[in-house]
Amino acid sequence: MTDVTLDPTKRGYWTSDQDVRWCPGCGDYGILAAMQFLFTELDVKRENTVFVSGIGCAARFPYYMETYGMHTIHGRAPAIATGLAVARPDLDVWVVGGDGDMLSIGGNHLIHALRRNVNLKILLFNNQIYGLTKGQYSPTSEVGKVTKSTPAGSIDHPFSTIGVAAGAGASFIARTHDLDRKHMIEVFRAAHQHKGAAFVEIYQNCNVFNDGIYDAIVKRSVRDEMMIDLVHGERILFGAQKQRGVVIENGEARVADVADVGLDAIVVHDSGRLNPSLAFALGHLSNDNMSPTPFGIFRSVAIAEYAEGVNDQLLAANEASGPGDLAALLTSGATWEVTGR
Amino acid sequence: MTDTADVTDQEDLANGTGRLETTAVNQVVIRFAGDSGDGMQLTGDRFTSASAMAGNDLATLPEFPAEIRAPQGTLAGVSAFQVHISDHEIYTPGDQPDVLIAMNPAALMSELGRVRSGGTLILNTDAFDQRNFDKCGYEVDPRTDGTLDGFIVHEVPMTKLTVVATSEIDVKKRDAERAKNFFALGLICWMYSRPTAPTLDWIEAKFSANEAVLEANTVAFKAGHAFGETTEMFADRYEVAAAPYEAGTYTNITGNTATSWGMIAAGQLAKLPVFLGSYPITPASDILHELSRHKNFGVRTFQAEDEIAAAGAALGAAFGGHLAFTTTSGPGVALKGETIGLATSIELPLVIIDVQRGGPSTGLPTKTEASDLMLALYGRHGESPIPVVAAHSPSNCFYMAIEACRIALKYRTPVILLTDGYLANGAEPWKLPDVDSLPDISVSFTTELNAQGPDGSPAFHPYLRDEETLARPWAIPGTAGLEHRIGGLEKADGSGDVSYDPGNHSHMTDLRQAKIDGIAKDIPAAEFSSNGEADTLIVGWGSTHGSITAARELLKNEGVSTAHLHLTHLAPMATNVAEVIGNYANVVVPELNKGQLVKVLRAQYLVDAKGVSKMEGLPFTGRELAAAVQEIRNNQEALS
Ligand code: SF4
To answer: What stretches of B293-395 show up as alpha helix (H) in DSSP?
Structure first.
């Protein structure tokens, strides 16, 4: 084969021959690179990996990965990928889409793939705008957003993406951002290891239609004070001196100064809780692009995976009734013989 | 013509020494009608099975309201089941019932108009009270005001007799009363000398979990049978002899079961696992139910969150190398259109089964119609030609399901299979095929590189077509070295790379069309028959086959010969259509729509075809179709 000279540990091995066509400076480039680097470290085969996408800038992703890929229909990628994952549990199936793709037109498919816990790695590139259609507000755009379709400002209330995933009962929920390759790789790796539906929100900069929306959070200069790193089993603290933290009051998460509330009041992060309320509360900690925002793994619980359930039922049926016999099926109802005389 | 059904049951009640000699009749049409809670579908179904076991030819027409339980005793709540049994080949569920069993006044009011004059009415008089008259709008008791003049009326207090018969059993009064449909069934089985064993066996198996109900139903059935035998109310008892069938093993089959088994069979014949993505919708849901029961055939069923996801999941499974299909009815096809478009573009096998019902919108969910033909042929965005096939009888659904799969797999294309509510729920005896005689429809996955890259190195081109079929290679994930990306953007011929080149788009559009057109070389000739020197050709498709055949027999009896061309392949059409269609002065196209095939025929073959339309949620009767054909012939004659 052609691969003999290629080294699977090199990024090029995972890079297709197609020219990448995102706008120069788009955050998608960083995400693609992180993914390709991750694959150089994973013990997986190209032929067993499939990227399925919907429509939008992010959805071009599969064209650039040297794996199997399906660039499908706006919003439908989670549904199409579900069929593939159920039919072929031997495959590693990734789903890529943007906020319009997965939360607007495809919202229904997303929540049901998460609810069923299909073994899909779902990456939502959230840039809070419709890029491919040139700049309309999206279901994650903030209230008041002025775009071509909302010249007087958007009056829609945006989704909390993490809240949607937690509400749908997603068994793995994480957030990362396009400026930190290392963080992305670690989050993607954890998603890949997770058995079931893994939902990863990536804060992605669209430098053409929504430039800099996350600057107040993810720019290097502000990260310490604005990014809250979630670590399972540890208190949720942040700030240069770990002087701030997250407390839960009346079921609501809020940021507090440790000096005011005392260290014991700071919540210990537990991503393994079966009840998704902590993930939900953390997802609602910030609802703008200006306050401290949690990153990392919100939730990772082991619950029954869907495709395995489907295939177990097939095995059980096979064991109970033996392999299907067509002639027996046709005579399984009442039958009668007619004899020629 | 001397073949008989070999049904013997020594202990059968029907073979006992009867009070009456039986009178042989060639055929009878019986209509069971009652409240939707009265179990009329089940009663009809059981009578049908007993008749099938007795070797009759038969056709059925279940008719039920869309509401699960409309208000009791009202016209809206009437559920009916018509069955036509005969000692010779028949084609329809019968134009007019000879016998109506009415379990309440609403059933009588709603169904009486259909019964032939002089027909027999069997009324459950226990339900004939003022309250029930009020509910359906009889101002006076219809038994007293001449409404039933000209009919033979049997008044039977079925509820009371059932309660009395079951009084020895420890069963709730409600359950005892509910068993009255088995009383009615027992009575009709006596009247038409049906074997009782099949029904008793069935009751035993069906209600094994509930001893009291099992016993109550058994006793009620026997009581109904004995009632016919011992009371003097019935002066006649009938026998419908077995029809002259070809030798073989038979079963009674509905269209939805035949479709389901056809898909399971197709998986076996293709040597592929079967994937069904579906969303519940009347009248297609039974296919999902049936497939879900046969997981040991390697069948995966996925009840999706909506119609779109159902089609999408199936397409995902097809990419993974499964024989994938989705089932729905009209409104669902509209939702799946986008996915069918993608399947057309990425050229993967996908079967879409549309069990048509009355439309538009929610329309008549439980009634039949054949008004999705244009939707199937053209109802997509862009130039997206796909094959469309249609079944013409309940058992034919089995073969057409296999045929739809064969075409989809071989040509890597979505295929729509049209059935309808009448076929789906209607039943007929089916001579079971020898499994070994079914076609091998297997195809092979591509495992080798097939082209050269720009630098001359070996490469895989997912759109390099087979020269004969124009099908593209089907390389599934897991195949090392053939990693490739496909999608809904236009692809360059051969390499499959995204291409916006104008010439390429034009060329790919032509190729997609040529691939579908070429299938015409690979399908059987359309079924054609002529019963004499005919000036009139009736062109049918789908479930009108039986009605057309019945109409032609009536016309023949009037001295009018006709020809019949029946299409199972609507796109592309068989090559003999063009040859046959130009040879007749009159071309008549009966359809359960406002004239869809007729438009296509006129456009494609430039013939002055005339449509006959019916939009009542019911199949054509032979009589109305024969009259329509005569009218067209007369008009034509008047012109010439
Ligand atoms: S429009 Fe925005 S999201 Fe799309 S490619 Fe350009 S920068 Fe990236």
So the answer is: 307-319, 330-346, 373-378
Helix (H, G, I), strand (E, B) or coil at B27: strand
Residue corresponding to tokens 């079914």: B438
* Gap between the Cα atoms of A92 and A191, Å rounded: 11
Q: Answer yes or no: is A273 within a domain.
A: no
**Cα(A158) to centroid(ligand 1), Å:** 20
A48: nearest CA partner in chain B: B478
Task: List the one residue out of A45, A197, A172 whose CA is nearest residue A116.
Answer: A197
For the segment B219-273, what is each residue's pLDDT rounded down to a tens digit?
999 999 999 998 878 878 899 999 988 999 999 999 999 999 999 999 999 999 9
Q: How confident is the model at residue B67 (pLDDT cuts 50, 70, 90)?
A: confident
Of B185, B207, B239, which marks where a domain is finished? B239
Peptide bond into B157 cis (omega under 30): no
Question: Does residue A3 register a pLDDT over 80?
Answer: no
Domain enclosing residue B572, as ranges: 527-639
CB of A318 within 8 Å of a chain B CB? The answer is yes
* Bridge partner list, A244: A238, A257
Distance in Å, CA A175 to ligand 1 centroid: 20
A119 inside 8 A of chain B by CB = no
Q: Considering only CB atoms, which chain A residues are within 8 Å of B489?
A: 71
Closest ligand 1 atom to A131 CA: 1
Cα–Cα distance between B288 and B296 in angstroms, integer? 15
SS3 content of chain B, % helix, strand, coil (to 5): 40, 20, 40
The pLDDT of residue B248 is 94
Band the pLDDT of A194: cuts 50, 70, 90: very high
Q: Which residue puts its alpha carbon closest to atom 6 of ligand 1?
A: A23
CA-nearest of A213, A212, A206, A202 to A180 is: A202
Q: Above 50 in pLDDT, residue A63?
A: yes
Which residues in chain A are closer than 8 Å to B304, comparing Cβ atoms?
79, 82, 112
- Cβ(A100) – ligand 1 distance below 6 Å: no
Give A 228-247 residues with CB within 8 A of chain B.
none
Total number of domains in chain B: 4
Q: Give the distance from residue B123's alpha carbon to the nearest chain A alpha carbon, in angstroms.
A: 30
Q: Which of A7-21, A26-40, B8-22, B364-378 has the lowest mean pLDDT?
A: B8-22
Question: Residue A290 domain-assigned?
Answer: no
Whole-structure pTM value: 0.93
* CA–CA dist A60, A72 (Å, integer): 10
**What is the percentage of chain B residues whose pLDDT exceeds 90?**
89
In a domain, B128, yes or no: yes
Q: Is residue A325 part of a domain?
A: no
Answer yes or no: is the C-beta of A57 below 6 A from any ligand 1 atom: yes
Q: How far is the CA of A46 from the centre of ligand 1 (A)?
A: 27
Amino acid at residue number A76: R
Could you report the per-residue pLDDT of B107-135, keeping only the tens digit for each? 999 999 999 999 999 999 999 999 999 99
The whole-angstrom distance between B451's CA and the closest CA on chain A is 12
| Token pair in block for residue B240 | 């419908």
- DSSP E strand boundaries for B361-499: 388-390, 414-420, 427-431, 451-452, 458-459, 485-487
Query: Is the CB of B312 less than 8 angstroms away from the CB of A72?
Result: yes
Q: Is the pLDDT of residue A288 over 60?
A: yes
Q: Is B311 inside any structural domain?
A: yes
Nearest to A71 among B309, B313, B489 (CB): B489
Contacts of B457 in chain A (CB under 8 A): 2
Looking at chain A from residue 90 to 109, which residues have their Cβ under 8 Å from any Cβ of chain B? 90-91, 108-109
Domain count, chain A: 1
Q: Tell me if chain B has a CB within 8 Å of the CB of A19.
A: no
Q: Say whether the ipTM exceeds 0.85.
A: yes
B11/B56 same-domain check: yes
Which two tokens mark B95?
């134009």
User: CB–CB of B485 and A71 under 8 A?
Assistant: yes
